[in-house]
Design a protein that fits this description.
Chain A: This is ABC transporter permease. Chain A: Belongs to the binding-protein-dependent transport system permease family. CysTW subfamily. The complex is a heterodimer of chains A (about 280) and B (about 425). Chain A has about 280 residues and is an all-alpha fold. Chain A has a single domain (about 45-280), classed as Orthogonal Bundle (MetI-like fold), CATH 1.10.3720.10. Chain A has helices at about 5-30, 50-55, 55-90, 95-105, 115-125, 130-135, 150-175, 180-185, 190-220, 225-230, 235-245, 250-275; strands at about 35, 40. A two-stranded antiparallel sheet of chain A has the order 1-2. Chain A is globular. With about 425 residues, chain B is an alpha/beta fold. Chain B folds into two domains: about 5-180 and about 310-360, D-Maltodextrin-Binding Protein, domain 2 (3-Layer(aba) Sandwich); about 180-310 and about 395-430, D-Maltodextrin-Binding Protein, domain 2 (3-Layer(aba) Sandwich). Chain B is built from 18 helices and 17 strands. In chain B, helix 10 runs parallel beside helix 18 (about 415-430). The longest helix of chain B has 16 residues, at about 240-255. Classes of the chains: A mainly alpha (about 280), B alpha/beta (about 425). The interface of A and B includes residues 121, 128 and 248 of A.
Chain lengths: ~280, ~425
C-alpha cells in the first residue's frame, strides 16, 4: 500500500492536468485535422489545414513577424528588467525603500491590460498629448505619425506590459547572491564590469531564464495588443488564430495553434537547455 | 392566432398597450396556446436570452421589454462575426439571435434557427417592402449582394435553402437596417467628397480607414474599386475568385503605400478614430457619425454618387425554443414592430421595419428630421437625452426614400466565401 501512496497523492493534480490540459490539447490536435465548410466542422483526417499554414506566404510572414515581435520585446525587456532589478537589488540599500520601489514597478498591473492599452491612444495619437507637447516645445513641426498604429506602438505596449515579468525573477535571483562574493571580487581587484560579467550575470541566469520564458511565451501568444496598438495593420499568429475562430474556421485555427505550440515549446526547450532554472527553486 | 382573434384585433386601434392587453386576454382565454393559465402566472419567470451586436443589443430595450411584456430579456453583445459564430455553434445557449441577414445565410443552413410563422406576426403586412418583396418601390432596384429578401424566407420547416420569394415562413423578423456610406471630417478633408474612390485620394494618405469585418469590408472595398475603375464586377455581392484577387490586390497596394491609418472592428473604435482626428475619411456606421457629432466634432455621413451599401438585421428564434418560451418570443417579436423600439432605433439614425408604428411614437419634428429629410424645427435629442442636432439641421443624405432608394449593394456572403476570407486575412497580414 505504502508503495502506491505517492501515486495516490499525486493523483488529484494528475487528474486536473489530464482533464483541463491534456484532453483539450488532444482535442486541439484532433480538430486540426478536421475539414470544415462555412459553418460546420466535418470530422475527417485531412492535411489541408497544415498545408494552408505552410504553403501561404502570409502565414510565413505572420510567423516571422511574431518571432520578430517576441525577439525585440525580449531584448528590450531584458535590458530594462536587468538594470531595474540591479538598481533595486544593489543600489537601493534600505530594505523599506527597496520594497516600496519594487511595489511601484507593479503599478502598471493595477489596471486591466485593455485599459492600459487604450490609454496609449490619446497619449500617442496624432493629436495626442506627446505630439502636442513636442510641437509646443518646438521639437517637431508636424505630428509624428509612427507613434501610434505602428509596430513601434506594438513594441512599446508589449514592453510596458511585460517588463515586470523580467524584473521580478531577476530581482529575486539577485537578492540571493551572497554579497561576500562581490566583496571578494572587489578585493581581488575586479572592476564593476568584471564583477557584473563574472559574478552577477552567471548567478542571475536562472532569473533571466524564467523572465525570458514568461516574456517570449506571452508575446508569442498575444493578439489583443497587436491588434489595438497597430490599429489592425499588423498581424501576429495569435491574431490570425483569433480571426479564424471569429470566422468559424476552427480546424484552421487549431492547426495554427498546434504549430504555434510546437514553436513555443521548442523555444522554451532551447532556453531550458541553456539555463538550468531549477537552481532557482 | 385563430380567426376570432384576428377579427377582434382588426377592430381595435393599433396602440401597443391595447394590442398587448388583447393578446394577453387572448392567451389567457386559452384560444391560442396550450399554456392558458401558466402564461399569466409564469410570465415573470420567462427569460429570453438574446445574442446580438451592440447596434441593437441595448439595455433600454431590455428594460422596456420588462415594463411592457413582463418577462426578462437578457442581452449578450458581441461583434458581428462572433454573433454569427455563437448563434450557429452555441444555439442552445441563446433563445433569440439578433443577427444580420448576411450572417443568416450561413447560420440558417446549420439548423440553429427555427423559421418564424408569419401568421403569428400581426404587422406582417406593414413591414417595409424591402423585406417582403425585395424592392422599396415596385419599380425600385434589388441591389447586389445578400439582400434581406433573398434570404428572408424558406419554403418549409426543414428547408436548408432559401425560398427567394415571400412564403409563410421567415428566417428572421426584420428589425433594423440602414444605408451605409463613408464618414468624413468636413473640417479636415479640405474638399468636397462625392465618390467612393475619394477614400484612395493620396491627399488622405495615412488618414483613411476601412472596417475589418470581411463580409462588410469587402463590399466597401468593392464600392471603392468600382468607383476608381480598378475592377469591374459582374456582381459585387458574389464575386468570382479573379474579382476577389483583384480587389484584395488593390487593397494591399493601398495598404503598402500607407493609405490606411487603421482597420477597425467595433463601433467604438470607429468613433475614436474619427473623433481623435487620426482618420478623416473612413467606412462608418450612421450612429457612429452621430456619436462623433455629439462630442461637438463635425462629422458628415457623406452621400456618394455611386449609392449606398446597405445592411439589415433581424430577430431569429433558436430551434430549441418551444412552449411558453416560444409564445414569449413571438410576443417579443410583435412588440418589436409595435412602435416603441422602432422610434428608439429611428432616433439613432437606423430605420425600423414597420414605419407607421414608429411614427406614432415619434414627434413630428423627429419624424421630419430622421425620416423625411426636413430641417429640424427644434433640437434633435438622442435617446439618452443629449442634444444631437440643433434646429435647422438636415440629415445627411436626406429622407428615407432618398437614402434607401439608392442602395446598390448589401453586405454579403459569397459563394467563394472561404476563399474571400482567406484573401482578406492576407490583406490584413500584408
Amino acid at each position: 500500500m505504502s508503495r502506491y501512496l505517492p501515486f495516490l497523492q499525486a493523483a488529484p493534480l494528475f487528474l486536473i492536468l489530464a482533464v483541463f490540459l491534456l484532453v483539450p490539447m488532444a482535442m486541439l490536435v484532433v480538430v486540426s485535422f478536421y475539414d470544415y465548410d462555412s459553418f460546420s466542422l466535418i470530422p475527417d483526417f485531412v492535411l489541408t489545414n497544415y498545408r494552408d499554414v505552410f504553403s501561404s506566404w502570409v502565414t510565413w510572414q505572420t510567423y516571422l513577424k511574431t518571432v520578430w515581435f517576441a525577439a525585440l520585446t525580449w531584448a528590450i525587456t531584458l535590458g530594462l528588467g536587468f538594470w531595474l532589478a540591479y538598481f533595486l537589488a544593489f543600489v537601493v540599500r534600505d530594505p523599506g525603500w527597496r520594497m516600496l520601489l519594487f511595489v511601484l514597478t507593479t503599478v502598471p498591473f493595477w489596471t486591466s491590460n485593455l485599459i492600459r492599452m487604450i490609454a496609449w491612444i490619446p497619449f500617442l495619437g496624432r493629436n495626442g498629448i506627446l505630439n502636442n507637447a513636442l510641437i509646443k516645445a518646438g521639437a517637431i513641426d508636424r505630428p509624428l505619425e509612427f507613434l501610434l498604429f505602428s509596430d513601434f506602438a506594438v513594441i512599446l505596449a508589449l514592453v510596458h506590459l511585460y517588463t515586470l515579468f523580467m524584473v521580478v525573477p531577476i530581482f529575486n535571483t539577485m537578492m540571493r547572491i551572497d554579497r561576500q562574493l562581490l566583496e571578494a571580487a572587489r578585493d581581488a581587484g575586479a572592476g564593476f564590469w568584471q564583477a557584473l560579467w563574472f559574478i552577477i550575470l552567471p548567478l542571475c541566469k536562472p532569473g533571466i531564464g524564467i523572465g525570458s520564458i514568461f516574456v517570449v511565451v506571452l508575446v508569442m501568444g498575444d493578439f489583443a495588443t497587436v491588434r489595438l496598438m497597430s490599429g489592425g495593420q499588423s498581424a501576429s499568429v495569435g491574431l490570425m488564430i483569433s480571426n479564424q475562430i471569429g470566422l468559424m474556421q476552427y480546424p484552421a485555427a487549431a492547426a495554427n495553434a498546434v504549430v504555434l505550440l510546437a514553436m513555443v515549446l521548442l523555444l522554451v526547450g532551447a532556453m531550458l537547455r541553456m539555463i538550468d532554472i531549477r537552481k532557482e527553486l | 392566432m385563430t380567426n376570432s382573434n384576428k377579427t377582434a384585433l382588426s377592430r381595435t386601434s393599433w396602440s401597443r398597450r391595447s394590442l398587448l392587453a388583447l393578446s394577453g386576454a387572448a392567451l389567457g382565454s386559452g384560444a391560442v396556446s396550450g399554456f392558458p393559465t401558466i402564461w399569466a402566472q409564469n410570465i415573470k419567470d420567462v427569460t429570453l436570452r438574446q445574442i446580438g451586436t451592440g447596434v441593437s443589443g441595448l439595455n433600454p430595450i431590455a428594460e422596456q421589454v420588462k415594463k411592457d411584456l413582463g418577462f426578462n430579456l437578457q442581452l449578450t453583445v458581441s461583434d458581428t462575426d462572433a454573433v454569427a459564430q455563437r448563434a450557429a455553434t452555441q444555439a442552445r445557449s441563446f433563445d433569440i439571435a439578433d443577427i444580420e441577414y448576411f450572417s443568416i445565410k450561413k447560420v440558417y443552413p446549420t439548423g440553429a434557427v427555427q423559421p418564424i410563422d408569419t401568421g403569428r406576426i400581426k404587422l406582417m403586412d406593414k413591414i417595409v417592402p424591402i423585406f417582403t418583396t425585395g424592392r422599396l418601390t415596385p419599380d425600385g432596384q434589388m441591389g447586389q449582394g445578400t439582400s434581406p429578401f433573398s434570404v428572408g424566407f424558406v419554403n418549409s420547416k426543414g428547408a436548408k435553402g432559401f425560398a427567394g420569394q415571400r412564403t409563410e415562413l421567415m428566417t428572421l423578423l426584420p428589425t433594423i437596417y440602414n444605408a451605409d456610406t463613408l464618414g468624413i471630417r468636413p473640417d479636415l478633408v479640405g474638399r468636397p467628397i462625392a465618390r467612393w474612390k475619394d477614400l484612395l485620394d493620396p491627399a488622405f494618405k495615412g488618414r483613411a480607414a476601412i472596417l475589418n469585418i470581411p463580409g462588410i469590408g469587402i463590399m466597401d472595398a468593392a464600392m471603392v474599386a468600382e468607383s476608381a475603375g480598378i475592377v469591374k464586377y459582374g456582381d459585387k455581392g458574389n464575386m468570382t475568385r479573379a474579382e476577389i484577387d483583384k480587389t484584395i490586390a488593390f487593397l494591399i497596394d493601398a495598404k503598402r503605400s500607407g493609405q490606411f491609418r487603421a482597420f477597425w472592428k467595433t463601433f467604438d473604435e470607429s468613433v475614436n478614430l474619427m473623433a481623435s482626428g487620426e482618420v478623416v475619411i473612413q467606412s462608418m456606421w450612421s450612429p457612429a457619425v452621430a456619436a462623433v457629432r455629439s462630442r461637438g466634432i463635425a462629422c458628415t455621413y457623406q452621400p456618394l454618387t455611386e449609392g449606398y451599401r446597405a445592411w439589415g438585421s433581424g430577430l431569429g428564434i433558436m430551434r430549441h425554443v418551444s412552449g411558453l418560451q416560444l409564445d414569449a418570443a413571438y410576443e417579443y417579436l410583435n412588440w418589436y414592430l409595435s412602435g416603441w423600439v422602432g422610434a428608439f432605433l429611428n432616433r439613432q439614425g437606423y430605420y425600423s421595419a414597420v414605419l407607421e408604428t414608429a411614427q406614432q411614437n415619434m414627434s413630428e419634428n423627429e419624424w421630419g428630421y430622421w425620416m423625411e429629410g426636413k430641417p429640424a424645427t427644434a433640437s434633435i435629442m438622442s435617446p439618452d437625452g443629449r442634444e444631437m442636432e440643433k434646429a435647422g439641421a438636415v440629415r445627411d443624405g436626406g429622407s428615407f426614400t432618398e437614402r434607401m432608394g439608392k442602395v446598390v449593394c448589401w453586405n454579403s456572403v459569397m459563394n467563394e466565401d472561404r476563399y474571400m476570407v482567406q484573401k482578406w486575412n492576407e490583406f490584413i497580414a500584408a
